[in-house]
Amino acid sequence: MKPLQQKLMNFQAEIGSLAPVEISTPFQSPGSEAGTVNTSNEKNTTNTGDNEHRSAKDNGYTRKNGRLNIPAKIEALGKRYVQFEEKVRSFGYTEALDDYEKRKLRVFNQLNFLQLITGIIVPIAGLFHNDKLPAMAWVVACMPAIVSFLVLWMNAHHYHELAIYSYFALYPFATSVVYMSGMNLGVELFFILYGILSVFFLQQITQMIYSVSLSMISYFILAVVCKHYTYQLATANPFGYFFNELLAIAFIFYGLFLIKKENTGYHLSMLAQYKTLEAKNLEIQQQKIEIAENETLLKGQTSELTELNALKNKLFSVIAHDLRSPMYALQNLFSNIQQYDLPAEEIKSMVPGIVNDLTYTTSLMENLLQWARSQMQADAVRPDMTDISKMISTVIASLRLQAEAKHLKVVCSADAHIYAFADKDMISLVLRNLLSNAIKFTPPHGLITIGAHSMEACIEVFLEDTGVGIHPEAIAKINRNDYYTTKGTADESGTGLGLMLCKEFLARNEGALHIESEPGKGSVFSFTLPAKPSPVPPPPAKPSR
């Protein structure tokens, strides 16, 4: 070592004895004064300066006023180092590794890369600062660099498990060799480092216990129990001994810092994934609720369509029969008049029955048309202020002949000029159907009372008869909108469509049909209607500026 140091000192002395050399700029010849331009070589020197500037720029730094831009060069070198370090940290990445395994691999590669650098720097520093180290010390000093290089090579070639096993086997072995060779170099704290890292990197509990036990037992026996060493670095080179101890502590804290940093990053990424999954789960739950609601709605619609289809079949079967009867009666009457010379008295006796059939048929056709229109225009309700007392009088007049045929008395007891906010055509059909039913099911010489009176926020319309009444089971069917029909007191037919239309039209006009009846004592049908339009909520106020 001394001859090498002597040669370096002589070389520095020779360098210092040389005269300073004056370097000319691209625009100044070596012999010219400052500020004088050498015009003969101006073009060549300019091209040379451009080439040098371009070459320097390609190398990651530039020249400024003929001098190197040192900060730019340092920045470029720093970027290259960061890129190289990132490449080293990503050694061994594969698509099969999850985020947690990649983070562990990054920490493992970063620690090994740092130990590789220190494993190279420490022996080089020992060459210049100490010439009394035994030969075995140089071998031991080079072992960390060899082990770290081997581990990084294994990771780069995707031998991840072998790299981890090699690290936690070779490093404690190399450190143990130092103390078993009779040297105390101040590296005993590295045993603690290996024990701490094994807890984080080793997956199986048996491997973890083995590694921690190996490191702690080696530390206790070689560094605590054994105190007699042939070589003490603390005596030969206190600075080197202190540096090794400080380096071990730095590695412990740096390793813990990297582990904490990657764990925190992993937990944050897991938290972000959890929030994303939670949002997706809530979205899925909402979709499930919507699907369940749609399923319930579809089931209800299916059930409703099934009931409507059954009702349609029943209605058409009744309609097909009831529409043919009066038509056949008329056909027979006119055929007999045409073929036979019927006396007037006989023709006159046949007319009342035909008139009754035609009256029923007319009512049936009107109900059918109204029902068809209501099905095609479900929301076509045109409410207006309607004089209910006048409407009752009109309906009574339209059914006067039917009532007189059965010698029934129809009385109107409505208040004068009582108004309701409702669709005129719909309520008129409701009143006609209710009065027609009362006429049908009231025996001759009976009484029917129809009227209306005002209430607090609505009006009530009622129709009372002295008819045969309705059984509770029939009332339940009517309230459920089930198909229900029966013959009148004079054997009048019905389709069951009238009361269904009444209930539907009243519901669309914010009303409801109520039935009170007792068999043999008559019935009372009543419903309510709004007395005035429902208040429309005011539009939201505009925010003040």
Q: Could you give the topology of this structure?
A:
Blueprint: H1 2-17, H2 42-58, E1 63-64, E2 67-68, H3 70-89, H4 99-129, H5 135-156, H6 160-180, E3 183-184, H7 189-201, H8 205-225, E4 231-232, H9 233-236, H10 238-339, H11 344-376, E5 384-387, H12 388-398, H13 400-405, E6 409-412, E7 419-422, H14 424-441, E8 447-454, E9 458-465, H15 472-479, H16 497-508, E10 513-517, E11 523-530
Parallel strand pairs: 3-4, 6-8
Antiparallel strand pairs: 1-2, 5-7, 8-9, 9-11, 10-11
Notes on the protein architecture:
The protein is of the alpha+beta class and 545 residues long. The protein has 16 helices and eleven strands. A hairpin with a 5-residue loop joins strand 10 and strand 11. It is rod-shaped, with a radius of gyration of 54 Å. The chain starts with a helix and ends in a 15-residue tail after the last strand.
Largest sheet: 5 strands, mixed
Low-confidence stretches: 1-5, 14-49, 52-62, 536-545
- Number of DSSP helices? 16
Total number of strands: 11
Strand order, main sheet: write it out. Answer: 6-8-9-11-10
Give short descriptive properties of this protein.
about 550 residues, alpha+beta, 11 strands, disordered N terminus, disordered C terminus
Quick structural overview:
The chain is of the alpha+beta class and 545 residues long. It has helices at residues 2-17, 42-58, 70-89, 99-129, 135-156, 160-180, 189-201, 205-225, 233-236, 238-339, 344-376, 388-398, 400-405, 424-441, 472-479, 497-508; strands spanning 63-64, 67-68, 183-184, 231-232, 384-387, 409-412, 419-422, 447-454, 458-465, 513-517, 523-530. Helix 7 (189-201) runs antiparallel to helix 8 and helix 11 (344-376) runs parallel beside helix 16 (497-508).
